[in-house]
Design brief:
- The protein is mainly α.
- Helices cover 79% and strands 0% of the residues.
- It contains 20 helices and no strands.
- Helix 10 packs across helix 13 and helix 15 packs across helix 16.
- The longest helix is centred in the middle third of the chain and has 35 residues.
- The protein is globular.
- The chain binds phenylalanine (PHE).
- The site of phenylalanine (PHE) has 16 residues, from helix 2, helix 3, helix 6, helix 11 and helix 15.
C-alpha cells in the first residue's frame, strides 16, 4: 500500500477541498446540459424531479463517496477495496470502483468536445465571429463550427492537452486558485444575463416554463434523465468526488462540505436556466433544440446588450474555465490509480491516459461531421457515451455505493468517518438504506417499462414498499450486528 508509506497529499483544509469539489461539480453540466435537457423534457416537472433527486439521492451519495475516499485513501478501486476489507467483506465490491473510474473516463471523452465548443466560442467572441441577428444565423454558425472535423478536432484536442497538463502537475496547484475567482465571475455573468432577460422580454415565460409543475408532462425517460443528471451535475459515481475525498483532511465535516457544494451547484444550474430561457422564448426558439441550445441562444443576447462583446468574452472564458476544472476531476481517479498501482510518475500517468482519451474523444468529435452516420439504434458515439454514463452507469454505481454503505459494511466505519451527531447520522443512514435505493430502483423499473409508475396514483404503494423495506432492513440489521461484533472480538 503506497499510501501508508508516503503521506498522501491533502487539500489545504476544508476550504481547498470545497473549492475543488465545487470546481468539479459546476461545469458544462450546469450551463450547457441542464438547460438543454430541461428543454427536451418539457420544463417544470423535469426540474422538480431533478431537485428531488439531488436531495434524496445526490446529497446522501456524495457524503458516502467522500467518506469512502477519505477512509480508503485512494482511487475508487483501491479505496473501496480497503474499506470493504476492513469490514471483512469480499473485494469483489471494488467492481463499483472500476465502473466509476471507467465512467469518469467515458464522460471526459465527450466532455472535451463540448468544452471545445466553449473554447471555440470564446475565440469567436474575441474575433467577431458571432455576428448575426437571428436564431438561424446562430444555428448556421454552430453547424459550420461542427461540420469541419479539423476545426472541431483542434478545439477538443486543445482541451484534452490542457486537461492532461493540469492533471500532470498535481492536484493542488492551480485548481483551488482558479476556482476561487472563476465561480464568483460565473455567477456574476449569469446574474447579468438574467437581468438582461428581465428587461428584454421572455423572462415571465421562462420562469413559468422552469417552475410550473405539471406533473403529467414528464415521461419515464425524463425521470431517468433527471436522476442521471443529478449524478452528473454533482460529479458522482464517476470517481471524481471519491478521489478528491481521499485528499480531504480528517476532522473536516463531510456533511457540511457536501451541502455547500450541492447548494452552489444547484444555484448555478437554476441561474443558468433563468439566464437562457428568456433568450429562447424572446427569439421564438424551440426549447427542445438539443445540445446546441446555449450556443445558438446566448450569443444573440450578448449581441443585443451594451458591452456585449466584453461580457460575452468573459462568459465564454468562465465557461471554459468551469469546464476545465470539471474535466480534470474526471481523470483524477484514473491517474491516481495508475500512480498508486503501476509505480509510474504523475506525468507519465497523465500523458498515457491522455493518449487513450484523445483517441476516444476523436470518435466522439467525429459524431458531428464525418461520423454522423456511425449510429447504433439511432445514437452516435457522442450520444452513446452520454447515454451509457448518465442513464446507466452512474445510477447503478450510486446504488451499489449506498447499498454497500447502508447494509454491507460495519456501521462503525461510516459513523467514524462522517462524525455526525446521532440525529443527522440516523437521517443519513435512512437515506442510504431506504430512500436513495428505492428512488433509483423505482425510476429504473419505470424507465425499463417493466411497470409504469405514476407517482400521483401510486404513492400509497410506494409508501408501503418503503415501510416494508425499513421493517425488513431493521429486522435484519440487529442480527448482523452481534455477528459482526463477534468477528471483531476475535
Ligand atoms: N459535474 C460536472 C458538470 O456538471 C461534470 C462531471 C461529471 C465532473 C462527472 C466530474 C465527474 O459539468
Amino acid at each position: 500500500m503506497v499510501s501508508s508509506e508516503q503521506p498522501r497529499i491533502q487539500w489545504l483544509g476544508r476550504w481547498g477541498f470545497m473549492l475543488a469539489a465545487t470546481g468539479s461539480a459546476v461545469g458544462l453540466g450546469n450551463i450547457w446540459k441542464f438547460p438543454y435537457i430541461t428543454g427536451e423534457f418539457g420544463g417544470g416537472a423535469f426540474v422538480l424531479v431533478y431537485l428531488a433527486c439531488i436531495l434524496a439521492v445526490g446529497v446522501p451519495v456524495m457524503m458516502t463517496e467522500i467518506a469512502f475516499g477519505r477512509r480508503g485513501l485512494g482511487s475508487p478501486v483501491d479505496a473501496i477495496r480497503r474499506v470493504v476489507r476492513e469490514s471483512g467483506r469480499s473485494s469483489a465490491w471494488s467492481l463499483i470502483g472500476w465502473m466509476a473510474m471507467l465512467c469518469g473516463f467515458m464522460i471526459l471523452s465527450f466532455y472535451v468536445v463540448v468544452a471545445g465548443w466553449s473554447f471555440a466560442y470564446l475565440w469567436k467572441m474575441l474575433t467577431g465571429g458571432l455576428a448575426g441577428s437571428s436564431v438561424d444565423d446562430m444555428a448556421a454558425v454552430f453547424e459550420a463550427n461542427n461540420a469541419n472535423p479539423w476545426n472541431l478536432g483542434f478545439w477538443s484536442t486543445l482541451v484534452t492537452l490542457l486537461t492532461m497538463l493540469i492533471v500532470g502537475k498535481g492536484v493542488q496547484e492551480g485548481i483551488e486558485k482558479s476556482v476561487s475567482w472563476m465561480m464568483p465571475g460565473l455567477v456574476l455573468m449569469l446574474a447579468l444575463l438574467i437581468a438582461f432577460g428581465v428587461f428584454s422580454g421572455g423572462f415571465a415565460q421562462a420562469f413559468s416554463f422552469l417552475f410550473s409543475f405539471d406533473a403529467g408532462s414528464l415521461s419515464s425517460e425524463g425521470m431517468l434523465a433527471a436522476l442521471g443528471h443529478a449524478f452528473f451535475t454533482l460529479s458522482l459515481a464517476s470517481g471524481a468526488i471519491l478521489t478528491y475525498g481521499s485528499y480531504l483532511p480528517k476532522g473536516t465535516s463531510i456533511a457540511r462540505t457536501t451541502l455547500s457544494v450541492a447548494i452552489a451547484d444547484t444555484v448555478v444550474a437554476l441561474m443558468a436556466g433563468l439566464a437562457i430561457f428568456p433568450v429562447i422564448f424572446a427569439n421564438g426558439m424551440n426549447p427542445a433544440e438539443g445540445p446546441g441550445l446555449i450556443f445558438m441562444s446566448l450569443p444573440l443576447a450578448f449581441q443585443a446588450m451594451p458591452f456585449g462583446t466584453l461580457f460575452g468574452t468573459l462568459f465564454f472564458l468562465m465557461l471554459s474555465m468551469a469546464a476545465l476544472t470539471s474535466a480534470i476531476s474526471m481523470v483524477e481517479a484514473t491517474v491516481s490509480w495508475l500512480c498508486d498501482n503501476k509505480g509510474i510518475s504523475r506525468r507519465t500517468a497523465s500523458w498515457s491516459t491522455g493518449i487513450v482519451l484523445w483517441l476516444i474523444s476523436t470518435l466522439a468529435m467525429l459524431s458531428f461531421n464525418l461520423g454522423a452516420d456511425w449510429t447504433l439504434a439511432g445514437k452516435s458515439v457522442f450520444d452513446w457515451l452520454d447515454y451509457l454514463t448518465s442513464r446507466l452507469m452512474m445510477p447503478l454505481g450510486g446504488l451499489g455505493m449506498v447499498v454497500l454503505a447502508g447494509f454491507v459494511l460495519k456501521s462503525e466505519t461510516f459513523r467514524d468517518e462522517l462524525g455526525l451527531a446521532p440525529l443527522p447520522y440516523a437521517l443519513w443512514l435512512s437515506m442510504v438504506r431506504y430512500v436513495s435505493p428505492l428512488g433509483i430502483v423505482v425510476i429504473f423499473i419505470d424507465a425499463l417499462g417493466i411497470y409504469q409508475v405514476s407517482f400521483a396514483a401510486h404513492w400509497p404503494l410506494l409508501l408501503a414498499i418503503l415501510v416494508a423495506m425499513v421493517a425488513l432492513g431493521e429486522a435484519l440489521s440487529p442480527r448482523l450486528r452481534p455477528a459482526l461484533q463477534a468477528r471483531r472480538a476475535l
